[in-house]
Automatic annotation (TrEMBL):
Record-annotated UspA domain positions: 132-273
InterPro entries: UspA (IPR006016)
Species of the source: Thermanaerothrix daxensis
Protein name per UniProt: UspA domain-containing protein
Pfam family, any one: Usp
Amino acid sequence: MEKARLLIAVESQAPTYPALELGLLLAELLRWPVDLLGVGRASVDATLARRIEEATEQLGAAGLMGDVLWERGPFVPAVLRHPRARPDTLLVFSDAHRPRWRRLAHSGRFRQLQAAWPGPLLRVRTLRWPLRRLLVCSGGLDYTLPLEAFMLDLSQITGAHLTVLHVIEPVTLDYPLAYNVQRHWSHLLETDTPQAQHFRALLARAEHTGVPCELKVRHGPVVHEILTEVRTGGYDLIGMGSPFSAHSLRRLFRPEVTTLVSAGAEEPLLILRYMPDPP
């Protein structure tokens, strides 16, 4: 992800604003311009208005201030109406104060934005700063390259340790590559599979740029293994990729994986989709 913009969306009903706090820190770190969006179902909340004003002054002093917009109505439609709803805009938002069951509902905020927002997403529930440990969940294929490149850059800027997690599921498809990966999952890098070639190249890039990086390989159900790693690893940011763009999510991709990880992980979660080059 090259230099982009941030759209930080906050709502007046929330008692705290972790998305705003982390978004401002990332903007100053990456030197990305920021647009602010305040959303409320009624009149503007005085606390949020004051916090937006403080953020505007902070961003203005740093030369990163964009536009400030206020919208009334439900959160997701207000976000999707924003003129910065483009592939080069990182949307920073929170669902920290919504009931846990809503995080799994088909009408939940995360699912709606995952399906409709054209660019990357950063879901924030808790502020984890400074960034010391980053996690990338990678399938070891080309669709994760943009996510891996961004996380490598972020690790280089912050000095954070980068862990690349690859989960090998029990074989459900009958083809040789799946069985080969399954048999050799504990020493994957020693094989000649496409995944091993991908991870060897990634580790070499990390070494070349001076980023402390390790590959962890787990075997089992994907969601369970990712959440187990998250709960035991002490990570400050989790990155997940998708092989499809926002407008072509399919059941085969199983967006349930990302949704279930988001529901079970309180750490900030970055979703960076693969956007194939036009033919």
